[in-house]
Design a protein that fits this description.
This protein is 50% helix and 17% strand. By secondary structure, the chain is α/β, with parallel strands linked by helices. Strand 3, helix 5 (122-133) and strand 4 (137-139) form a beta-alpha-beta unit.
Length: 165
């Protein structure tokens, strides 16, 4: 039997809003905005859209307060968005590992056993773990200027020659 839920076109914001409302349906738009670190107007826009599509139902508690209830269709959407998020995250992880291997092979062919890493965050962590797994030393000091440098640029890794070479 075909699903009556339309294919999700949601975003990370929709996923986060649905998760928060399932946990606390009495959250205000201001409370949601604070938790998600976005403007109240952004929350208002997303909530109107989620209500219009049938993913969330708004119940009036009093003159100024609403309760937002995630519908069955909204729960299905949240599940789909969660799966999509996990798939994208795992693909980014696999791509980063593959790129790390490729760059480290270039470094090895150039005769180096250490590499300098510039940047931080999850992408840098994945690179660091891959390098250590392959037997490379990873340094972050800028006084190691002869070493090849791998810089984190958003979700990308960039290899360049050492600053002194």
């Amino acid at each position: 039997m075909p699903s009556t839920v339309p294919a999700p076109t949601g975003t990370a914001h929709e996923l986060k809003i649905l998760e928060q409302l399932e946990t606390d349906p009495d959250l205000t738009q201001a409370g949601l905005a604070t938790r998600l670190g976005v403007a109240v107007g952004t929350i208002n826009w997303y909530l109107k859209r989620l209500v219009a599509k049938g993913y969330v139902k708004a119940q009036r508690l009093d003159r100024k307060r609403l309760r937002y209830i995630v519908t069955r269709q909204g729960i299905t959407l949240r599940s789909r968005l969660t799966v999509q998020y996990l798939q994208r995250t795992m693909q980014l992880y696999r791509d980063t590992r593959e790129e790390s291997h490729r760059l480290l092979e270039q470094v090895r062919r150039a005769g180096f056993k250490d590499v300098r890493l510039e940047g931080d965050g999850e992408i840098a962590d994945i690179f660091r773990l891959t390098a250590l797994e392959l037997g490379f030393g990873v340094v972050t000091r800028s006084d190691d200027g002869d070493l090849p440098v791998v810089a984190v640029r958003g979700t990308q890794l960039e290899l360049r020659k050492g600053d002194n070479g």
